[in-house]
Design brief:
The complex is a heterodimer. Chain A has a single domain, classed as Methane Monooxygenase Hydroxylase, Chain G, domain 1 (Up-down Bundle). Helices cover 84% and strands 0% of the residues of chain A. Chain A is built from 7 helices and no strands. In chain A, helix 1 runs antiparallel to helix 2, helix 1 runs parallel beside helix 3 and helix 3 packs antiparallel against helix 7. By secondary structure, chain B is an alpha/beta fold. Chain B has a single domain, classed as Rossmann fold (3-Layer(aba) Sandwich), CATH 3.40.50.300. Chain B is 38% helix and 24% strand. In chain B, the strands form 2 sheets. Chain B has a 6-stranded mixed β-sheet with strand order 6-7-8-3-9-10, sandwiched between helices. Chain B has a 4-stranded antiparallel β-sheet with strand order 2-1-4-5, with helices on one face. The chains are: A mainly alpha, B alpha/beta. Chains A and B meet through helix 3 of A and helix 10 and helix 12 of B. The complex binds adenosine-5'-triphosphate and magnesium ion.
Chain lengths: 224, 277
């Protein structure tokens, strides 16, 4: 293996580590939300520092590869894809932290009926599944797996719309829970953003493997 | 590697919209090669090569040692003819004229198609006489004409300021980079159409190399340049199109940006990324 291949391998491993860290943060946020567990939420906020550190470290690895090895073709696309994915992962970390902070700011647990009405658990599960697909696609270098998560992203968009639609009515009916309802809507927005960011990861994987650019294409399915 | 419909889809999805690319003015073809096979005795060093080299741009030839780059380059000024058992089939044209036809004046051809070699090879003469060499062969002996043309060539070769006060000194006393620029000036003095360069900077230090690269970038507005280089970053930096050869075959020939970001062929990718070769 050439030195460049070594450096690329190291970057890939480091990116996988970071993806796993952000994924575990997402799992924790699901649990913190369902169990209304502010200790777990505080752990998430604490862990977020590590996500930020890893982002800096990965940026450094990318910069070194570009400066030292002049990567071209698939190697260049890989480094570019990693630079962007690194930013996406870091922002996903921020969004998960945002969810944790909403939970910490809450006075009382979310009502079971509202959790069901908003389908928040489903959203968490879709996000986690999409993230698992992205990690699998990256590890196995499989563009089909990457492409499979575009469909799930549209589901998240719909659930987010649904939550926005039902929220006003609930807010009027149950003023005692207005803070929790608003927080739920915000958490759902964050989950929808996380879905977008996982989608970006998948697009970058397809870009670096196949040199196909899917960004800003409305009907991604058609091209896969 | 990819089916044609799939390739079309990729074209649709390129980052640069095609409309931008078609805005480029149409470039003329300077050199065209059609179905060329070249032999040294029984050994075919090039197999059925076809390609068109555009005017006023730099075209790079890359590929592992022994793949036939120099053989290919020497087709254009018929330098291979000096090798006794060399044979070529197919067509090679300069501005639409077959350069291997019987009617061709090879001396005129070598004036139109100049060549710069890997090792700077100035003659053991003065700087002035080195640059004037080709002009004298053409029968130009008028002192003021020679002086004017030599000065012009040295200026074009970015060497005038270095040597204008020492024109009578031996060219061998110059640095390697300066010697190479003398050779470029010698080539430019006879006002060629095409300049062939076989690894022209491989014997030079990075600063002399950078100076020559800047120079080539300027020269391409007046000349068509074909360059063999083992330095892939150099090919990427200076050329508009790049051809990748592998054991006598032309594997891929495309815009340099494409070849270095998204080559069509796996063998190209393996070579440019250093996975073999
Ligand atoms: N004069 C010759 N007689 C016989 N075979 C030759 C001659 N010149 C070149 N060859 C062979 O033809 C093939 C192509 O050689 P060529 O010099 O064109 O390669 P190249 O790509 O320029 O290599 P390098 O990068 O090492 O300069 C090689 O296999 C070489 O051994
Ligand atoms: Mg050679």
């Amino acid at each position: 293996m050439s030195n460049l291949q070594h450096a690329i391998f190291e970057l890939k491993e480091s990116m996988i580590d970071m993806a796993h860290l952000v994924r575990s943060q997402l799992l924790l946020s699901r649990q913190a939300y369902l169990d209304f567990d502010t200790d777990i939420a505080k752990t998430i906020v604490e862990n977020e520092k590590r996500v930020n550190e890893m982002e800096l470290a990965n940026d450094q690895l990318c910069e070194n590869i570009i400066a030292l090895y002049n990567p071209v073709a698939i190697d260049l696309r890989f480094v570019i894809a990693m630079l962007k994915s690194n930013t996406d992962l870091e922002r996903m970390g921020d969004n998960v932290e945002g969810i944790a902070k909403y939970i910490i700011g809450m006075d009382k647990p979310f009502k079971k009926a509202y959790i069901d009405a908003f389908e928040t658990v489903k959203m968490f599960d879709i996000c986690i599944e999409m993230f698992d697909n992205a990690i699998e696609a990256f590890v196995l270098e499989n563009t089909n797996v990457a492409a499979s998560l575009f469909k799930q992203d549209r589901q998240l968009d719909k659930l987010n719309q649904h939550a926005t639609q039902i929220a006003p009515n609930l807010l009027m009916k149950d003023t005692a829970y207005s803070k929790e309802i608003l927080a739920s809507v915000s958490i759902i927005r964050k989950l929808e953003r996380i879905g977008d960011q996982v989608t970006n990861l998948a697009e970058e994987i397809i870009f670096y493997l196949d040199a196909k650019v899917l960004k800003h294409l409305k009907k991604k399915k058609k091209f896969l | 590697m990819v089916s044609s419909t799939f390739a079309m889809e990729i074209n649709l999805m390129k980052r640069i919209p095609d409309s931008l690319e078609t805005q480029k003015p149409q470039q003329k073809i300077a050199l065209s090669v059609y179905d060329v096979t070249a032999w040294y005795g029984d050994f075919a060093a090039l197999h059925n090569i076809s390609m068109s080299i555009k005017e006023n741009q730099i075209t790079s030839l890359i590929g592992p040692s022994g793949c036939g780059k120099s053989t290919f380059l020497r087709l254009f000024n018929r330098m291979n003819d000096f090798i006794s058992d060399f044979r070529v089939s197919g067509t090679v044209k300069l501005n639409g004229k077959n350069i291997y036809s019987k009617a061709v004046d090879v001396v005129q051809l070598r004036k139109d198609v100049g060549m710069v070699f890997q090792k700077p090879n100035p003659f053991p003469k003065s700087i002035f006489e080195n640059v004037a060499y080709g002009l004298r062969i053409q029968g130009i002996n008028n002192k003021s004409v020679l002086e004017e043309k030599v000065e012009q060539a040295l200026k074009q070769a970015d060497l005038w300021n270095d040597v204008k006060d020492i024109l009578k000194r031996s060219a061998l006393a110059l640095s390697g980079g300066q010697q190479q620029r003398v050779c470029i000036a010698r080539c430019l003095a006879v006002e060629p159409k095409v300049i062939l360069m076989d690894e022209p900077t491989s014997a030079l230090d990075p600063i002399s190399t950078a100076r020559i690269e800047v120079l080539l970038n300027e020269l391409k507005d007046r000349y068509t340049i074909v360059i063999v280089t083992h330095n892939m970053q150099q090919a990427a930096r200076i050329s508009q199109q790049t051809a990748f050869f592998y054991i006598g075959d032309l594997i891929e020939f495309s815009d340099t940006e494409k070849l270095f970001t998204n080559p069509e062929e796996e063998r190209t990718q393996n070579y440019v990324t250093g996975r073999f070769g």
